[in-house]
Fold these 4 entries.
Entry 1:
Amino acid sequence: MTVSQQGVILAGIDGSDLGDAVVEHAIWISQNTQLPVTFLHTIEHSHHSEHPHHEGNLTPNIKEHLLDELSEEDHQKSKQLIAEGKVILEQAKLKAEQAGLKNSIAKQRHGTLPEALVDLENEVLMVVLGAKGEDHNGDNKGLGSQLEESIRAIHKPVFIIKQAFSEPKKLMLAYNGSPTSRKALDMIKQGTFCNQSLEIHVVSVQKNLDDAQALITDVSDVLAGSNIKVTAKAIAGEAINELTQYQQQNDIDVTAMGAFSHGQLHGFFFGSFTTRMLLESTTNFLLIR
């Protein structure tokens, strides 16, 4: 496969239910793109003592002792988190080696995931994240608390994993003519995401069918001469309903789309289209910023 840019596949992993699926999808992408994988585990220092104290009733000397106790407690907790993270990273590297990948890298960083992504953005071609972290283990609904912030933190494609690994067969591009959806279309044309192993569907949903068809014509013009065969569909209706229905009817594994094209203020008042799609769909997502 031809890769237009060089970089690594960065997989953010933790002890969540989706952790193994993130690792396995990152390995799959690496095998298809011949790009190396970096596994990233982050440690946030947000530990709070499990033993409640009523500080208002304490003398200054006892308060000072309490601070020492909390500092030691935090130190021990940090050591535990570091050790647990190293085990997670070692297991990921072992799985990559067993899949035939060489030279995978493990990184452990202190701080939040969005902070780490910003620091590492220049060396990354694509990020792979689970839709929910370990704070949501056992919860089949919702999204991780840091997911939107992580996606917004960088301007690289982010592959969001929502289900256990099964080799993807079909990708649907939700195309609306926006700059980010055009960027996603260019990725498909250039072959930067596993095109050889995927059946490509391009779907445009507009209130007016003629408008949707015009966008599909635009897609055909962009892909002309690229030898990429796609199933193209113009649909009139409400975008989220029609796209999720198309996903289900056509057994789509991955949905590619532009992400958060409006600002955060717009999303606060009107709800983010990206977030609603993530919540209402069961497919994995390739989000383009």
Note: Residues 60-98 form the longest helix (39 residues).
Entry 2:
Amino acid sequence: MAIENPLIRCENVTVSASGKKLVEDVTFELGPGKFVALIGPNGAGKTSLFNTISGFYRPSQGHITFKGQDITRIPAPRRAKMGLGRSFQNIALFRGMTVLDNIKLGRHAHLKTNVFDALLYLGRARREEAELRRDVEERIIDFLEIDHIRHAPVSALSYGLQKRVEMARALAMQPEILMLDEPVAGMNREETEDMARFILDVRAEWGVTVLMVEHDMGMVMDLSDHVVVLNFGQVIARGTPAQVQADPEVARAYLGSGNVDELRERLRAAARPRAEAA
């Protein structure tokens, strides 16, 4: 079913590298305010599609539009300025810098200060710095409960806190769409619960649309409005979490068989720790 006025639309997108199709003929839409998860086995093309939407890869075929504007050939920094903020599967923070400085870098695309003002720290530069620091400290740092580490170097933080700082940097971009690439990968149960809560709160309180790649099926089924399933670079299923769980093609992709009951049990087992913790 077509979405009226989608924020993002991928139309027949194909991405190739070294003669291999990483993504093939993918079409899907992301509506405003929705939470959509991209799932699939390892090597299914999820991160490749993410990189294409955010501008790090360019499709060999097809088009991508953002709020009706064709962004297929617009580079990643301009897409970030337009409202596409993202985190990465592998943490991409500056480890020698503090938490606060890493987060502030997320706002760089929106700053209007010219080089002369910045070098001399003149009026506009001072005002922008004060406004940026106030927004980051009063909104983002407090929201993600990382005030106690704001001046700590990223290299001194646990893995879970580093993932939270990366999300903070993405939020500093003032995104309309928050793109999260495996936000809870490698986290323990408590860290996963915290991150899930933050993601839901960002959507509810800030009105941010969420597009997420994640292997934690319990989290995907608990949080998502809509799920798109990829396998070998192609969309094999889409729908609500319940519809996707019941699709035999999804079972075959994950398990190599048509045993839907086995897949459902696997998904229930992934969700069980969250239910017990609640």
Note: Confidence is low (pLDDT under 50) at residues 113-122.
Entry 3:
Amino acid sequence: MTTAIIDYGSGNLRSAEKSFQRAAREVGGGEIVVTADPAVVRAAERVVLPGVGAFRDCRNGLHAVPGMVEALGEHERAGKPFFGICVGMQLMVTLGREFGETPGLGWIDGAVEKITPDAPALKIPHMGWNGLSLAREHPLFEGVTGGDHVYFVHSYHVVTDDPAHRLAHVTHGGEITAAIGRDNLFGTQFHPEKSQAVGLRIIGNFLRWRP
């Protein structure tokens, strides 16, 4: 069983690789590989798409890897587990509105919007630890409870068209989407690889997930 972490020039690949490898050892999660090879992605049972920076830059970086977007589409249509992290999660939706409008992968209907806190004293980017509010049960939140803290650093978040696709939020001058998903797709705005025990729990759940 192989989990492929996509290398397209964006994301904390070393940190993510180490966290997924640690979780894999704990749960018997198979091999973790960092790859820019679409053939490896097609063969993988699970795929992780990290992302750090601006939506448009990450989208362009992903499209610059020959065959990668097509391989990811095949993975999604095959119903295999997929995990998007930070901008990797944002890329799952229809549209990003950072520095103009940029199309995403379109797997979940919604848009990436700038965070606008209702209190002027609250700073953007939203950075640091915040407590999760879980909208509903999900296999990747097994062992995670409302109020558990995870680590964020971002200025934009996803607004889903269907509220059922928002799995969790945090509060920072209003509600900010923390996790989205449907069927075989799951994504977190927070960084599980930086979220200590809670993040490792979520990663381990992903490595055992059978959508």
Note: The CA atoms of residues 49 and 204 lie 16 Å apart.
Entry 4:
Amino acid sequence: MNQLVEITERQIGEWDKYKRVNFFNQLSGVRTPFLIGTRSNDEIDNLAIFNSVVHIGANPPLLGFVMRPTTVERHTYNNIKGSKVLSMNLVHKEILDKAHQTSAKYPSEQSEFEAVGLSVLRGLESVPYVKESNVSLQLGFVEEHKIKNGTILLVCEIKKVYVNAKYWSDKEDLDFGKMKTVGVSGLYNYYTLESLKRLDHV
């Protein structure tokens, strides 16, 4: 039998902020990080990495993601509420370092695209996409739900999907292993993904 390590509420209370945040962020497992692209009313492109994107429904196609509390300025949140549109861009191995760097604090007048060296692909309604991404989504803001800890769940509807032609066939599923898509656990631990098996629908 596996030996269990008990971590008590008292022990957790003694951890510093970043150890606590990283630990609890890891407990939901490995997730796929996305770069969310938005544009401000001043026409400044914004780009930020998120590891909290979740599937909500397929009809209509909805995704959600969690924003940290707006007790400080949140450029992504402000831009979405202003323009009602955004992009989500899948992160892969070749752009991982640049993608992670978008989590640094930049002033609102600084475009993270320029700061980290990623290219803008302009979409409809001036939505900025990451040109280097293999899967990019155009979404419209639908609604938000405030959680009691101050975080906000934003729900958005997928309006358009762009897929690198090398990885798309109507007869096949998307192969995230071939795309070199990465996974993330916690604040800064990244993993590679590979296809394990495809089981029959039941």
Note: Residues 17-26 form the longest helix (10 residues).
